[in-house]
């Protein structure tokens, strides 16, 4: 069986490790490949390669780095069908969704193409008489990225295009569940003209991650994944003196106000809750209905829509399904156990996605769309991130109760409100303790030129992904104060210098 190795110094290399992990096709349950779990010494060797490459890459002009990004963007677009197929085969999401993921990743490359502008820094003429001050935004050195399974291309592309454009070199540690596609992306970077050693991939698990977190040659670590691991990454990387941005899990609520357009809310919720089988950190998993009338009306519509959903394999279909399988058997079992716990905790199961079989794909990891009503704080299905196609309806009496509920949750990644009243929407944007907020938008994922990141236990570290925060994260600022005096300066100054 094919073993996916590493991508070091511009080429695929066979790993020396004796450990590996299976890679599955979630739609069939078939094991298709193995992926190496790299050793400590392989990871250290990759860091050494990236460190050497930094010497020359950091001196390439921003304009020339940007031109490589332009070529990379074009190659990603030319290869989008192949890349999408690769995502679907290991992640399970449907092809159009995989293409959507790629497009959102390509948008970060587009942003990175503007790096000569983004690195301009600040300049002040005459901060004192004959004295100028300006900033230099310089690369850090070797940076590392550790990514989750749910966006095998988009999340790495929140990280490395900006890091590389800023003049850093990079080591990517992808999820071991769907590692094939990012190896192909590395080849496209090379084809675009990226010098060898600037972008490297180490496949592996905690053993490799711990090297990236502790090796003094790595200067910054970007992480996206579950909250317990994000906390660990942030604490360990920071302890070793690195810059860390660690994005964690989520529980995203949507407030449905009594004045909201119910058809609009229903179609927004269907995609936001069940798209990608709920395996999105910005999925809406809780609908907070203000008033019983709002909940009853919405639930009737949702049940109708759910009954018409197509669930099936993400590729090889005649008519594209709305939703594919979950990524692994372990994850599907975890989602099923959440459904059981919801029933035990007293929530009302309206649509049951257990025992869900897809014809000719009986071994696939499918869980059907599931709908709970009368969910309350304290229940596991409310408190914890399920990361599956399970939508919970919580009923509250007022807008204030809805805001209090959301603000009391430990996660604060994304949220949204559906209303036709500008005043409630405006208050919501100001009062809500969540990092990414939508108004009549169900999944408010910021564009590449803005920054992505939550609040509370959804993020650790001060700087978010991409946009200006991304550029700040991958550069260190130096401020130069300069003057060009004529003749010898003979006056000694022992007091604190001041300008005037
Ligand atoms: P995960 O935390 O299990 O894995 C993420 C990465 O960490 C993988 O590369 C994995 O190999 C590595 N890892 C796992 N255990 C480790 C350990 N003990 N030590 C060091 N590294 C370890 O997450 P996942 O299941 O792949 O992804 C789903 C999670 O990611 C969900 O919680 C989801 O909300 C979150 N996520 C968050 C965002 C966001 O922007 N906030 C985006 C996407 C996904």
Automatic annotation (TrEMBL):
<protein>
    <recommendedName>
        <fullName>methylmalonate-semialdehyde dehydrogenase (CoA acylating)</fullName>
        <ecNumber>1.2.1.27</ecNumber>
    </recommendedName>
</protein>
<keyword id="KW-0520">NAD</keyword>
<dbReference type="GO" id="GO:0004491">
    <property type="term" value="F:methylmalonate-semialdehyde dehydrogenase (acylating, NAD) activity"/>
</dbReference>
<dbReference type="GO" id="GO:0006574">
    <property type="term" value="P:L-valine catabolic process"/>
</dbReference>
<dbReference type="InterPro" id="IPR016162">
    <property type="entry name" value="Ald_DH_N"/>
</dbReference>
<dbReference type="InterPro" id="IPR016160">
    <property type="entry name" value="Ald_DH_CS_CYS"/>
</dbReference>
<dbReference type="InterPro" id="IPR016163">
    <property type="entry name" value="Ald_DH_C"/>
</dbReference>
<dbReference type="InterPro" id="IPR010061">
    <property type="entry name" value="MeMal-semiAld_DH"/>
</dbReference>
<feature type="domain" description="Aldehyde dehydrogenase">
    <location>
        <begin position="15"/>
        <end position="480"/>
    </location>
</feature>
<dbReference type="GO" id="GO:0006210">
    <property type="term" value="P:thymine catabolic process"/>
</dbReference>
<dbReference type="InterPro" id="IPR016161">
    <property type="entry name" value="Ald_DH/histidinol_DH"/>
</dbReference>
<keyword id="KW-0560">Oxidoreductase</keyword>
<dbReference type="InterPro" id="IPR015590">
    <property type="entry name" value="Aldehyde_DH_dom"/>
</dbReference>
<dbReference type="Pfam" id="PF00171">
    <property type="entry name" value="Aldedh"/>
</dbReference>
